[in-house]
Specification:
Elements lengths: L3 H11 L3 H8 L3 H14 L5 E5 L5 H9 L4 E6 L2 H9 L5 E3 L12 E7 L8 H11 E12 L7 H20 L3 H4 L1 H7 L4 H9 L3 E8 L4 E7 L1
Parallel strand pairs: 1-2, 1-4, 2-3, 4-5
Antiparallel strand pairs: 5-7, 6-7
Length: 223
């Protein structure tokens, strides 16, 4: 699993150009992925939501716009990233480690984490901590990269390991911050493996929906 100190330092260094890099690397599809999540959450009639590993607030801001009645808090352990989220209009932010959230048990109706669980030092511990702050019947939504199946798998892996780090490195001037990305995606639990990991850590009804030919997966589980 990723080294927390390295990940925090890497994100601090790329914070200024993180949003632009995401748009370029995904060919703009990251905007649609977040809209898909926000519209799904809008159907749940939630009162409050915690966005964990929020970074520059991309997902939290999309949910804030799409679901104006939900009280949303964005957290991240990298203060530099959260500063950008605040500057972009995120109303409530908190610097916090996802493995030690500063909230009481059963505080939130929904917890989200987009492209962040993969970077955490302990997946089961993070899932348990997010479960702790969820109310009974609350929803956890995880959005993260995955590997497509079939004929797209090989060319996508080549892009992931050869093109993506170079492009992102050129945009951010921090190539090393992206060199670990391909390996982290390869090692991250996917599909039914992730669903079972959720069930093993006190969630029920875990299910997965793949987006953009399987490049990204959206997991939803209930406490």
């Amino acid at each position: 699993m990723p080294d927390a100190v390295y990940v925090k330092d890497a994100f601090a260094r790329i914070a200024d150009r993180y949003v632009m890099a995401n748009h370029v690397m995904s060919c703009g599809m990251d905007v649609w992925w977040r809209k898909r999540v926000a519209w799904k959450i809008r159907q749940w009639n939630a009162n409050n939501l915690l966005d964990v590993a929020s970074g520059t607030g991309d997902l939290a801001l999309e949910i804030q716009d799409t679901c104006p009645s939900i009280d949303i808090t964005a957290t991240d352990f990298c203060a530099e990233m959260l500063e950008h989220a605040s500057q972009r209009g995120m109303r409530k932010t908190m610097v916090a480690d996802a493995l030690h959230l500063p909230y009481a048990d059963a505080s939130f109706d929904v917890v989200t984490v987009a492209f962040g669980l993969r970077n955490m030092a302990d997946y089961p511990a993070a899932l348990k901590e997010m479960n702790r702050v969820l109310r009974s019947g609350g929803k956890l939504l995880v959005l993260d990269f995955s590997l497509p199946n079939g004929i797209l798998r090989a060319p996508y892996r080549w892009y992931l390991h050869n093109i993506l780090p170079r492009v992102a490195g050129w945009i951010t001037q921090q190539k090393d911050a992206y060199e670990y990305l391909g390996a982290s995606i390869e090692q991250f639990p996917q599909g039914e493996v992730m669903c079972q990991l959720m069930r093993d850590n006190h969630y029920t009804s875990a299910e997965v929906e793949t987006l953009t030919f399987g490049v990204v997966s959206m997991y939803v589980a209930t406490k």
